[in-house]
Write a structure and sequence with these properties.
- This protein has 324 residues and is mostly helical.
- The protein is 67% helix and 3% strand.
- It has 9 helices and 4 strands.
- It has a two-stranded antiparallel sheet. Strands 3-4 form a two-stranded antiparallel sheet.
- The longest helix is centred in the N-terminal third of the chain and has 39 residues.
- It is globular.
- 36% of the residues are buried.
Length: 324
């Protein structure tokens, strides 16, 4: 058997293995996507649309699901050898573009959530935003050179491989930094809100949110880490890991929405008067508590939870809000 034939057989086995793993992940993604769309668009009864739908969350979920679906379809095209109808290596180029665009979108959402949780503080998100900009610039460089290489333009393949390593490295660091900042912020808010808690449960809702954020961040980080190690040790295994990564990051996005959908702040009660520590208490959905040490305003439990999922229209609730 010739060397060319052996290479083709090895590549075919890799494509089949990649499609098998990706198809399993896509099944999980499909289920999580349906539930996420239900919580973002429909009310608690599941029969009517919410009065206020955060369409940017819906658009991101649709984009990620679309890229993941296209990735599976292109993988099927490779396995069935239907890519003869495409330009040479055109399918591989489209796969790379889809994977990296999905990574950039998920990282952008993570930076946005960090920005919201820190009450639009630009100082806090400087590092995560810089890492995201670096990832985006490197992705543009990698995609441009990959397309140029496939159309026959001379390209330094060593620089192309280094840019791939840079993308995965920046994504890993950015996920760790942003997830850590968000978790630290929510932990501080939970500690400051402990005296307003009406139900002394073992774990508060905000502690559950911290767990959800960390687990989802770990899922994205580990998927990028697996891709990095796979490409560094064996490029063939890297193709399988990268195809699975686009499914995993989409699943992580949906899981945050699903798992925080039922996390409410009804375990907190705040006094109605800023100067009184006693008297009737209101169950508030949106409250901002003054930080007694720095004079800044801290996000209340409902603000934190609503920054990760879609919530009902709170225009009437805002009228009940107070500073304590």
């Amino acid at each position: 058997m010739s060397t060319s034939s052996q290479t083709d057989d090895a590549l075919e086995r890799i494509n089949i293995a990649s499609l098998f793993v990706e198809s399993i992940m896509y099944g999980w993604l499909l289920i999580s996507f349906v539930f996420a769309m239900r919580y973002m668009i429909l009310d608690e009864s599941g029969m009517k649309m919410k009065r206020c739908v955060h369409w940017y969350l819906v658009v991101v979920a649709l984009l990620l699901f679309s890229f993941a679906t296209v990735d599976v379809c292109l993988g099927l095209v490779r396995v069935l050898r239907l890519d003869v109808h495409f330009p040479p290596t055109g399918v591989d180029t489209m796969l790379v573009i889809g994977i990296f665009i999905a990574i950039v979108i998920v990282d952008a959402v993570l930076v946005f959530r960090c920005w919201v949780v820190y009450l639009h503080s630009l100082k806090v998100i400087c590092l995560p935003a810089a890492l995201w900009l670096g990832t985006t610039a490197t992705v543009i460089f990698y995609v441009y050179n990959t397309v140029a290489l496939h159309v026959g333009t001379p390209v330094d393949t060593a620089r192309l491989e280094h840019s791939l390593e840079a993308i995965l490295s920046l994504t890993i660091v950015q996920n760790i930094v942003s997830t850590g900042l968000i978790a630290a912020r929510i932990w501080r808010i939970d500690r400051e809100s402990a005296r307003f808690r009406t139900r002394r449960t073992q774990k508060s809702h905000l502690q559950m949110v911290i767990r959800i954020v960390i687990e989802s961040g770990l899922l994205c980080t580990l998927s990028a880490l697996c891709s990095f190690i796979s490409f560094w040790s064996d490029k063939n295994a890297g193709y399988i890991a990268s195809d699975a990564e686009i499914q995993l990051v989409s699943i992580a996005y949906n899981l945050i929405i699903i798992r925080t959908a039922n996390q409410t702040s009804d375990e907190y009660a705040f006094p109605t008067s800023p100067s009184s520590g006693s008297g009737p208490a209101l169950q508030l959905s949106i409250v901002r508590a003054r930080d007694r040490t720095s004079g800044n305003f801290e996000a209340a439990p409902r603000d934190v939870i609503s920054s990760f999922n879609d919530s009902e229209d709170n225009s009437t609730i805002k009228k009940q809000s107070t500073y304590v």
